[in-house]
Design brief:
globular, Rossmann fold, five-stranded parallel sheet, 2 domains, 410 residues, nine-stranded mixed sheet, binds iron/sulfur cluster
Length: 410
């Protein structure tokens, strides 16, 4: 018998759209009503998850054998790393933190720049509901893809005649014309930090006369400063292009400081946006479990934070870990190509609902999908936690259950 399930949340990316209609016969998904191709792919994954079997070096084995081999690898390891946690539920992220604590391991996500800035200066952020109801100036900086995301645009639509809104697109790729922006400001990516500092100076009334602005045309810098001054509620969406480069965390810190200064007179917030197929949330779970949003090491028996030392990318590239435990539906999120190559040099355990293309972990432990097979929760990119439904049966365990099985077998 066909059943229509309404308002299902998709965990296929940071948007966490929660208005999707799914038709199911109780065993399989038959139809997903969404125009998002990425969302369709995420729901289609449910059809193959049940066929996945535990593997050791590609060889199918029983769950018990795979868990025992994973435990052996963990016991042989002196410096394990737990990473990934993108497209994972809050429960799985919490179980991953608990396992890292038990092992004395390092745990980090791929969202290094954001979490580093968050730890340093905090974050002045808001929900999408506030943006929709109040923002009169929205600036997409290095987030052109978000602007053209139909689900995102729909989430900001308002029928209120009181909200008259201006949309500015900033960054290197802003020349890509879109009908959804009112203004485009080209900024040289390597000069973005200086642009923020110049903006701070202008908003504080510092006279920049005689000093040629760098990275941005002078008229555009002046116009931006004046629009921020006139706005009652401005919001910056910073996307993946804004977070590139060695100084990405400094840019995010500078933007946070700019926003705090604007807040002394009017409302201003920022929402950081991950790359496509990535989700947010692991940084929140890490923060409320350990006090730190990323790059946490438990080797001393308590959580220590050191982004320079415990960043997953650096540890893998410098061969400072001897085992990697990858968790989640998109466990390589945020890792560079070079880092992914380094992953093949050490033993790895992968726990998740899909095999990674062109990568063979030493142990693969399949898991069902939270949001389709299991209920749970996840964070949307504005930091709002949303419930996930479990509406199909599965032969698999959840990621959290697999992590707990390993923990109990140790
Ligand atoms: S935008 Fe993201 S959350 Fe929304 S349907 Fe597409 S993949 Fe799913």
């Amino acid at each position: 018998m066909k059943t229509l399930i309404e308002d299902v949340t998709c965990a296929g990316c940071y948007c966490a759209c929660d208005d999707i209609q799914v038709t199911s016969d109780g065993q399989q998904i038959q139809e997903v009503q969404t125009t998002c191709s990425q969302g369709q792919v995420w729901f289609e994954r449910a059809a193959i998850t049940d066929q996945l079997v535990p593997r050791i070096l590609g060889r199918p084995v029983s769950q018990k054998e795979a868990i025992e081999r994973a435990v052996e690898l963990i016991q042989q390891s002196l410096a394990p790393l737990v990473t990934g946690l993108s497209q994972s539920s809050t429960d799985a992220q919490r179980a991953a933190v608990a396992l890292a604590d038990q092992l004395g391991a390092t745990i980090d996500t791929g969202a290094a720049a954001v979490t580093r800035a968050l730890q340093q200066v905090g974050e002045a952020t808001c929900t999408l509901g506030e943006v929709r109801s109040r923002a009169d100036l929205i600036i997409y900086w290095g987030a052109a893809d978000l602007l053209v995301n139909a689900n995102h645009r729909q989430s900001l639509e308002t029928n209120s005649a009181e909200v008259s809104r201006k949309v500015i697109v900033m960054g290197e790729a802003c020349s890509r014309e879109t009908e959804f922006a009112d203004e485009y400001i080209q900024v040289e990516p390597e000069r973005e930090l200086e642009v923020i500092w110049q903006l701070r100076a202008l908003l504080k009334g510092v006279d920049l006369a005689g000093k040629e602005p760098v990275g941005i045309a002078e008229s555009e810098l002046q116009s931006l400063a004046s629009q921020l001054k006139q706005s009652k509620y401005s919001v910056f969406f910073t996307g993946p292009e804004f977070k590139q480069g060695a100084l990405a965390h400094r840019k995010l810190e500078a933007l946070s400081l700019l926003i705090k200064e604007i807040q002394s007179e009017r409302r201003c917030h920022a929402i950081t946006v991950p790359a496509a197929k990535e989700t947010k949330g692991a940084e929140h779970v890490l923060a409320w479990q350990t006090g730190y949003a990323a790059a946490v090491n438990f080797a001393s028996g308590f959580p220590r934070y050191s982004p320079g030392e415990y960043q997953a990318t650096r540890l893998l590239e410098q061969s400072e870990v001897d085992l990697c435990i990858l968790v989640g539906g998109n466990p390589q999120a945020g890792l560079s190509e070079q880092t992914i190559k380094c992953l093949s040099n050490i033993p790895s355990i992968q726990i998740g609902p899909a095999l990674i293309k062109d990568f063979q972990p030493h142990v693969f432990l399949p898991a069902g999908i939270t949001g389709i097979h299991f209920p749970g929760s996840m964070y949307r990119y504005d930091g709002t936690p949303l419930p996930l439904r479990g509406f199909l049966p599965t032969v698999q365990n959840s990621e959290a259950e697999v992590l707990i099985q390993i923990s109990k077998t140790l």
